[in-house]
Every structure is written in C-alpha cells, then in structure tokens.
Amino acid sequence: MSSFKKSQVLLFLWLGAIFCAFGQDNKGTPLYKQSAAPTAQRVEDLLGRMTLEEKVGQLSTLLGWKMYEKEGEHVAVSKAFEEAVQQRHIGMLWATLRADPWTQKTLTTGLNPKQAAEATNAMQRYVMEHTRLGIPMMLAEECPHGHMAIGTTVFPTSIGQASTWNPDLIQEMAAAIALEARLQGGHIGYGPVLDLAREPRWSRVEETYGEDPYVNSQMGIAMVRGFQGEDIASGKNVISTLKHFTAYGVPEGGHNGTSVSVGQRELHESYLPPFKAAVEAGALSVMTAYNSIDGIPCTSNGYLLNHVLRDEWGFDGFVVSDLGSISGLKGSHHVAATSEEAASLAINAGVDSDLGGYGFDKYLLEAVKSGEVSQEVLDVAVKRVLKMKFDMGLFENPYVDPAKAAKQVRSRNHVALARKVSREGVVLLKNKDHVLPLSKSLKSIAVIGPNANNTYNQLGDYTAPQPDENVVTVLEGIQAKVSKDVQVNYIKGCAIRDTTQSQIAEAASLAAQSDVAVVVLGGSSARDFDTEYEETAAAKVNEAAEGELISDMESGEGFDRMTLDLLGDQLKLLEAVQKTGTPVVLVLIKGRPLNLNWAADNVPAILDAWYPGQEGGSAIADVLFGDYNPSGRLTISVPRSVGQLPVFYNYRNPKRHDYVEGSAEPLYAFGHGLSYADFEYAHLKIAASGNARSPEVAVHFEVKNISNVDGEEVVQLYVKDLASSTVRPLMALRGFEKVMVPAGESREIQFTLNEEDLQVMGQEKSWLVEPGNFQVLVGRSSGDIRLEGNFVLE
Fold first, then answer.
1. 173 neighbors 220 (Cβ within 8 angstroms)
2. In the record, which residues are listed under signal peptide (predicted)?
3. Which of 378, 407, 436 is the last residue of a domain?
4. Residue 142 and residue 788: Cα distance in Å, rounded?
5. Distance (Å, rounded) from C-alpha 590 to C-alpha 609?
6. Of 619, 642, 648, 632, residue with least CA distance to 733
C-alpha cells in the first residue's frame, strides 16, 4: 500500500474516531438517544448539538393551558404551541391541565383525565417529530392538595394535612396525587409549600404546614417521598418542587410577596431547616420566592441558591423562578434597570428555569451575546434541566396511556384516602360537657351557615372546577349519617362577607325548634369568574360596585387581611343561634386562624376542619357523630387579637408578659386538640449518653387511655436549652407520634434525641451542640405539658 493510501486510511480512521467521539455509534444513532449510555454523557452529547437559541428555549416554562385546542371530544396542539416550539424552542410548560377562573377553563372547556392524556401526548408527539433534536417536553402541574385539574381527587389543603400529625398518611396521599398527575402526562408537581406561617393575616396560610420548623420538615419529607418514590422514571411519580425559597410566609404587615425582616440566625435556625430536610430527602426542584430578605430578592440571591442550597446542602436538581419573579427584579424590586439585567441577575444567582417564559427568553439571549451571562453559566442551567428529562426516561417513554388515566384518576381508593386525611385533620378545639359526639337518634338537627352546603368554599385555593356530585358538603354528610326519622333542616343564614343575604331571624327560629344546631362558618378561597387577577395569578381585592354581591373570598393568594374577625354577619348569626338555648356545635371551614374569642367563651363545642377537601362533609360527620374519635392537632397558634401578632409558640427568650388588655398567650396553643378519650402521662425516664460532640438522649414515658373510648393520641416532645451562647427559643418541638391507645390500655413511647435535635448556631454562625443543661417537656400541646425532666451534656 502506498504511503498516500496509508495516509488516507489513517485520516479516515481518525475522522471516524472524531465522529464517534461526537456521539454517533456505528448505526448512526446519536449518543443522547442511546438509553444504555450514562446520563451525564447523554447530557453532554445533546448539549454539544444545541444552538444558543435552543439552549435558552429549554429554560422557558410557558403557560400551558394555551397550548391545546378542544373541539367536542377531540384535542390537539394549538397554533400557539407550534409557534412557541418552532420560534422559541421551549422545553417546559406549566399548568397545562389547570382549570379555574384565572385560566378561564371550565368543566366544559377544560380537559377530563382521558382528554388530558391525549393532549399531552399530542404535544410530546409534535416536539419529538417536528423539531431538529426531538427533545421531549417536561410539564409542571400544581399539586399542593391534589392535581389541579378536572376530574382529580381533592384532598384537604396543607394546613389540614399537617393537622393530622401523620407523615405516613401524607406520604400515601402524595403518592396518589403524583400518580394522578403522571397518568395525565405531568412530570413535575409543584409542592410542598414549606413556608413557616407566622403571620396569619397573610393570604396563603392554608398552603402551609403551620408555624413550626420540625412539623414542616416532617411533612415536607413525606411529600417528597410520596411524589418522587423510589424511581422517578417509574411512570407513576413526579418531581417535587419545593416552595417558596425562602421565608415567604412572614411578609411585613401580611402583604403577600413583600419584604421580609428576618436575621441570618433566624433564617438558618427556623426558615431554612424544612427545605434542608426536603432536599436531603431527595427533592429535585426548588422554586424561588417573590419576597426579598435583607434587601436581596430571593430570585437573585446567589448566597441562598448557590452557596446554601447547592454548596452546603448538595442539592442536585434545578431551580425555577416563581411566576414573573425574574421580571419582578426590574418591575417590583427595582434592583435591575433593564430586563436583560434582570435575566442576568437571576441566572447568575442560580435560577435555571423561567416560570412564565418572559423573564429569560430574548432577554437572556441578549445577555449571553453581550457577555453579561457566560456560556458556562448558561450550559450549567441547561444541563440541570436536561438531566431531569433523561432521568425520568422521557426520551424513551414520552407518552402516557389515556385509558389508564380515565380509569385510575380519582379512583375509589383515592376518594377513600381523601376522607381519611380530612378526618384525621379535623381538630376538636372545645367540647364542654361532652356535647360531642352527637347521638344519631336525635329528632331534629338544624344545619346553618354559609359553609354548611357550599361546595367550593370547602376546597381551598388551587382547586379545579368540580361537578357537585364529586364533593360532599357538611349538610350532605350529616344527612347521610342519620336515619330518615331524623329531621335535618338547613338554612344558609348569611354569606361569608356580603350582608345583604342574611336570614338571621329565620336561622334562629330554625335552631329553636331543633335538638341541636350545627353552625358552619369561616372563610373561603373560592375564586369566581368575576374575580380579577394579577399577572402572577394572585387574586385582586376590589371593592364591590353598588348593588353588587360581595364575593365570599377572604383567603387564598392575594387576599391578605387587616383583622382576623369573622366577616359579614357571621358572628351575628352565631350569637342569634346561641341565644335560643339550643345546644350549638360550631364547625369552622377556613384557611387561616380567625378570631374565636366569643365562640370560645359561649359555644360549647368547636370543630376546626380547615379546608377539608371533597370528602370534608363525610369526614366532619364522622367526627360529629363519634364514628371517628378526633385526633387532629393545631400546627399554628390561634391568637386572641391581631395586636398580639406575631403569635407562635417557639419565639425566642425572654418570656412575654401580658398586655394591659389581656393575656399574651394565644387562645389555642400550637399542638392543641381534644379527643373523646382522656389520656394520662407517666413514668418519664431520660438517659443521656455520649457528650456534646456526639450526644444521644433516650426519652421514655407511658401514655394511658383512662377513658372507655379508643383514641389516637398525638404525643409531643419539646426541648428547652437552659443556657446557651445565643438566645434560644422558649421551647422547640423535637419529636411527635400519633399512637392508637385502646380504652383502658397503655403504650410505651420512646424518642431519641441526637446532635441535630440539640444543636445551636453559635455566635460565629457555625452549628454546634453546647455542653450544659437541657429540659425535656412532654405533653398534649405546647400549652399542655404533662411531664418534665432534665439532662446534662458534658
């Protein structure tokens, strides 16, 4: 062979090697399409093939409900979707299947589960077959208390979920929500919301797990494990997006999305631990918050997103902005002069995905071209998004089965699970003279109030339209519980806010003729089609025109409060019914703590059901008539007045003194909740071993049911650091367990405290366990401590 031919052969071999190195096998299949190849290699191969415009497009998460068209039973991609894919190279959608007044999708114009699966399949088919690289879409859906889509199961809102004090149950619920979303083509579930709710005037308390870092952590872990399961590519799990990073739940004055005043120590000791726990549980996505902390918006806070989240905690997922929060750096916070600068601030701080699609897009393109954003920073963000698509198996399995969606979404088992979660979350606040449980042999029951027979008022915000037959109201639950011989009479009595619809005299007359009056009051997060909305989807608070009925909505995103009073004529209604002398049971359906001072003084029995979801009426009836012994406990304190705020149990020393007008203590304390059973605590034993460098403290005690009724008790373990280098909380929850104790029997309870339970952020901002004296407090609530003991760490 001539030297020329040898050179040709060597050149051919060299070119072949280069060709293979760029991701082609001998059959011409790109490496990124080879399922057996490692994910990291597939990501690098695909990234190397993408244009700048395609990379930026992968970071855009557009509003999804505009991306399909429906004619009769047929669904297809819309022109808007085709244009977004071809012109903007989008990689993700949000709320594609969302239906509510904001999206203007109704039971008629929206999609049932089968149609939803067909629509998402059509979108995937289009991008797989009509784009250069065939990168599948990733669809994010709202999933805080059920997938926010037509035909799904509606569970209690998060504050009700937390009131169960049962993380195992919440994990089971989260798995059900994930399955329903995934069967319809969703891949990401927005939730859980891990904001501490220490400002009850704030409109979104219902979306939280309450005021305590430990409860929030345990519920967050449960949600992440339920959403993501063991294998994110299972076809029945979704990526969990933690919201809102961070300290969003304590805005000044209760104004949603405004600035927050917390110190760095408080931030690390109270507001970050729930997120850290969820990240350690494997959460794959985090959403930034609208607020600023110490003058820096969370969406441009590199310290939080890069240093804390990624460097310290080892987070390996992707960060998404909240809707419009990138453009908000310019338009709301005024820390950016131009939209290009806002995009630069966000991505350089660690934001990978733009929810809404108008924060990055052309502005990020310009920022990269001008050098404000480096190619390296852009590539890192794109890699994080692509990795999730490969890990979920979307390149191999982008489609779902519409028949499965039709059959398994809102299954009988899921409906039963919704009832169980709702039932366990009902909190018995008061039960004077054992008014409850009610007898099923009563001759007549008056069911009264604006929330007694209102489908939407018991569902909470972030809920899709519902056929009436999907929801059981309190009236319907009571009617189903008693025989036809019991006369159940209903009157609305008044609205939540509007005072032109009141029937107070008629309601009092009905109560006077009845054996018992069940009065169902509270609030509403139910949006209607007359509501106006901000660009971020938060509802606008507008004054009603003269002669126009006032909406019930007084809670839900955007509806912040100045007071916590029952609105409209609700208190007048309750007072009139109480004056009849008929025994009264007050049932509360609401999204935030309300002023219950008069009720606490005058009404013999009070149940708090929060927003109990579609099975709320059945669950409440189960508790009212004793078919379920209430086990719910408060995860947020109920104040006596807004003048006390903030009111939460684990505030920092020193202990607060009373006001001139009254007590500084809350009306109902964190952890409070009664049972039809009575429990006795005894035999506390504390054994500390190790030392401050490696502590282990075993806590043993006994709980005995001293009644003749089986009951679940929520035992709560609190710790007090008696002397430390920095000011510590008055007490801090460090363990809880819901345990069934049959009548007359006892249960041995054991907790083990470790380094994480006892550590403090010292003066130098480092975590350590300090030697010294600690106190253990065990009881039924933060205000009902039954056992106390001390231990010393050397």
1. no
2. 1-23
3. 407
4. 43
5. 7
6. 648
Rounded Cα distance, 678 and 676, in Å? 7
168/221 Cα distance (integer angstroms): 10
Same domain, 252 and 384: yes
- The rounded distance, in Å, linking the Cα atoms of 176 and 192 is 14
pLDDT tens for 249-278 read: 999 999 999 989 899 999 999 999 999 999
Name the helix (H) or strand (E) containing 597.
helix 597-602
CB neighbours of residue 470 within 10 Å: 18
Burial (CB count <10 Å: 0-12, 13-18, 19+), residue 44: middle
Is residue 772 within 8 Å of residue 723, measured between CB atoms?
yes
CA–CA distance, 773 with 770 (Å, rounded to integer): 9
8 A C-beta contact, residue 639 and residue 673: no
Determine the straight-line distance between the first and last CA of the chain, rounded to whole angstroms: 84
Distance CA 163, CA 668 (A): 14
Select from 92, 61, 141, 66 the least CA-distant residue to 357: 61
**What letters, b where the CB count within 10 A reaches 16 and e where it falls short, cover 104-138?**
ebeeeebbbbbbbbbbbbbbbebbbeeeeeebbbb
User: pLDDT tens digit string along 78-121?
Assistant: 999 999 999 999 999 999 999 999 999 999 999 999 999 999 99
Q: What is the 8-class DSSP label of residue 316?
A: -
Q: Are 516 and 440 in contact (CB under 8 A)?
A: no
Q: What is the CA radius of gyration of the chain?
A: 28
Torsion angle of alpha carbons 722, 723, 726, 731, nearest 10°? 0
In a domain, 259, yes or no: yes
Give the domain extent around 715. 679-793
Task: Tell me whether residue 18 is in a domain.
Answer: no
Number of domains composing the chain: 3
Distance between CA atoms of 540 and 486, rounded to whole angstroms? 44
Residue (of 327, 334, 256, 325) closest to 295 by Cα position: 334
Contact between 699 and 750 under an 8 Å Cβ cutoff? The reply is: yes
Q: How confident is the model at residue 157 (pLDDT cuts 50, 70, 90)?
A: very high
Which amino acid is located at 438 in the chain? L
- Which residues belong to the active site? 322
SS3 737: strand
In a domain, 128, yes or no: no
CATH classification at residue 312: 3.20.20.300
pLDDT in tens, 307-338: 999 999 999 999 999 999 999 999 999 999 99
**What share of the chain in percent tops pLDDT 70?**
95
Tokens of 243: 């919201």
Residues 39 and 102 in one domain: yes
Q: What is the mean pLDDT of the chain?
A: 94
CA-nearest of 434, 441, 437, 469 to 455 is 469
Strand order in the sheet with 784-793: 732-741, 711-721, 772-781, 784-793
DSSP-based three-state secondary structure for 302: helix
What's the token pair of residue 382?
């794109």
**Which residues have C-beta within 8 Å of that of residue 784, sequence separation ≥ 6?**
669, 671, 672
pLDDT (average), residues 162-180 = 98
Q: Measuring CA to CA, how many Å separate 250 from each of 30, 212, 540, 563?
A: 50, 13, 20, 16
CATH number at residue 515: 3.40.50.1700
Is position 732 within any domain?
yes
Tell me how far apart the alpha carbons of residues 16 and 21 are, in angstroms, rounded to a whole number.
8
**Phi, psi for 322 (deg, rounded to 5):** -75, 160
Q: Provide the 3-class DSSP secondary structure of residue 418.
A: helix
Q: Which of 374, 407, 440 is the last residue of a domain?
A: 407
Please indicate, yes or no, whether residues 571 and 628 belong to a single structural domain of this protein. Answer: yes
Strands 711-721 and 772-781 come out as antiparallel
